Amino acid sequence: MTLHAEPTHSITIDGNFSDWATVPSHSDPVGGPGVLHDGIPDTHDTDHSGPNDIPVYVNHPDIDLVEYKFTHDASNLYAYFRATGQIGRTISNASKHGRYYVIVTLDVDNNLTTGYPVHEGGYFPTSAGYDMNMEVEYYDGAFNTGHYLNHGALNQPELDAAIQDQTNGIVRVLPGTYDYYSQWVWFDSPGAGSYQLPPPDNNASITFVADKGPVYQGIIRIALSPDKHEAEMVAPFRGFMRSPGGDPIIALGNTIGISISLEASPELSPQPNTEWASDTGNPILGYFLEHPEPQLKIAPFVQNGNVVLSWLNDATGMKLQRTPSLTVPDWQFVGGSDTTNQMILPIGSGSAFFRLMEP
Ligand SMILES: [Ca+2]
Ligand SMILES: [Ca+2]
Ligand SMILES: [Ca+2]
Question: Ligand 3 centre and the CA of 257: distance in Å?
Fold first, then answer.
């Protein structure tokens, strides 16, 4: 597999999409009668769940994905979507309450044997290994929840155990199936959610949510363009929780896989139509969460007799190295530099050259 070391981008979730201009774009066919995507009707029903099934065409421009992008910074994942119709549009009247999902499915451990294949949820073309989602639900004419989701259970007892772990801020990345999942909203506040998390996340809390549930605004946020054809979404790393050993599930230096889908109930599709519909883009595989440029600064005159070397706090974990010569380099690790973003070293009599290396 080809790994793509993807540079970071600074994205603001504000409905202005100029900040996406330099993020690589992925395209998806414009749907319509007879339009196929890898042999699958581009916009299609969600009733098929076999790996070799061919779902049936459904006309639903609102979920017709035509372009998507994915990027990150030091602490957030971001996704961009463009559709033929209006993203997030749902009916709301006395008898009908529509639903619309903006879905980013993640293979968080770059391992196909954990998680589940997306065809189990009716998403085609399929690919496998998806452990967690970052997702937004619109319901009954409005934003409902932005939530994290885990597919790490094969049966009800395993799901019960996963939910118990998640009340303690722990996600185990295990084989899963579409039907057994949990989903939660993460709040950066100990009292806003149902479960306050233990240290070091004790300033946060979560609430488990279900489809069509109450409205909660947590840390996953989305913004639409004025014409609703475009959306941008953020999911901070921390909401994906930690492994049992305490390591963040999503962190810089990890490699992940990404699948993007739009899905909606039928009320606002061109009638007559009673079928839910979805559209899934080709997966982005081998996405390496590159560190931000560390911006090493060398300041020899700040302190008498010392040189102050500093780099971005976001780049803490990188290793400072020094060599007395560039013609005959002898790079040596500067002890302790991988746990800080600043080193103060005495100025000696010879030359010294410095660089930062990823661990
Ligand atoms: Ca923006
Ligand atoms: Ca499409
Ligand atoms: Ca996986």
Answer: 8
Q: Which ligand is nearest to the CA of 118?
A: 3
CB atoms within 10 A of CB 347: 13
Q: From the centroid of its chain, how far is CA 110?
A: 13
What is the Å distance from ligand 1's center to 88 Cα?
17
Instruction: Mark the residues whose beta carbon lies below 5 A from ion ligand 2.
Output: 28-29, 31, 42, 64-65, 279
List the domain boundaries for the chain.
4-289, 297-357
- Report whether 143 contacts 222 (CB < 8 A): yes
**pLDDT tens, position by position, 185-226:** 999 999 999 999 999 999 999 999 999 989 999 999 999 999
What does the block give as tokens for 47? Answer: 């009733």
Burial of residue 199 (number of CB atoms within 10 Å: 0-12, 13-18, 19+): exposed
Which residues have CB under 8 Å from 222's CB, separation 6+?
A: 13, 88, 102, 136, 143, 146, 231, 232, 233, 234
Ligand positioned closest to the Cα atom of 9: 1
**pLDDT per position as a tens digit, 119-176:** 999 999 999 999 999 999 999 999 999 999 999 999 999 999 999 999 999 999 999 9
Plot region of 203 (φ>0 → left; ψ -120 to 50 → alpha; else → beta): alpha
Is pTM beyond 0.85? Reply is yes
Please give the backbone phi and psi of residue 277, each rounded to the nearest 5 degrees, phi first.
-140, 150
